[in-house]
Structures are given as structure tokens and as C-alpha cells.
Amino acid sequence: MVKVLFDHNMPPVIAHSLNELIKHDGHEAIALRDKFPTNISDIDYYKKLGEEGGWIVISKDVKQVKKPAERDAILRSGVMVFYLKPAVQKQKVTEQAATIIWHWDKILKQFELSSGGLFEMPVNKGRFRVL
Prior knowledge:
Layout: E1 3-6, H1 12-22, E2 28-31, H2 42-52, E3 55-59, H3 63-66, H4 68-77, E4 80-84, H5 86-89, H6 93-113, E5 117-121, E6 129-130
Parallel strand pairs: 1-2, 1-3, 3-4, 4-5
Antiparallel strand pairs: 5-6
Helix pairs in contact: 2-4
């Protein structure tokens, strides 16, 4: 079972919609605000997700990768993070959801292959780029 958390910069409606599609396979998608207080720091929520295990985060906040403390917290947590490529971020919400759904099977495969990691999600059928 995979649990997917959509962080604060992602529309909660995508998490709720994806959850409806994947729950039948035993997976779960949830918006960060539905799990943690809205003022939780990135470092704290990655630590908590890491303690629980089995989490993927989908985010637009690629700046996390460039902040040493946040990057370290993410990598230590073992949480796998997919950042939407800027071209995906500019899409309408429905198109962002479609892009994530398009990549869903590849997300699951990547999760099976590695423990944690930082990846960029492309707009098309391309491969994830390691960050």
C-alpha cells in the first residue's frame, strides 16, 4: 500500500480525486492540511511521514531541494517526493490531475524500486528526472 500526501502548494481537490481512483487498490491520497496542522514545517512533516513509512509526497515546491536542511530531512526520512515540472505547474488543475494520473503506474514502480528520493515529474510520457 502506498500513501500519497499532496503538500500545501497542491490543490486538495487533486488529492481527494486521486484518492477515489486509487483506494480500490489499497492506496491512499490525502492533502497535507487533512493530516497535519497548516503551520507544520516541511522538516517536521517529512520526519513524521518517515516514521510512519510508505509515503510519497507530490509537490510544486522544488525550492525544498535547494535548501540543505529540508533536502537532508527529506532524504533522511525515506519519503519519495515528486515535484511537478514548471510546465505542469502552469497547467489548469484538471490538467495537473491528468498528468499525475498519467504517471501513476510509473510512480508506483519508482516507489517499488527505491527507498526515497527526489524526482521531477514531466508533463509528457518522459522519464522522471532525479533531483
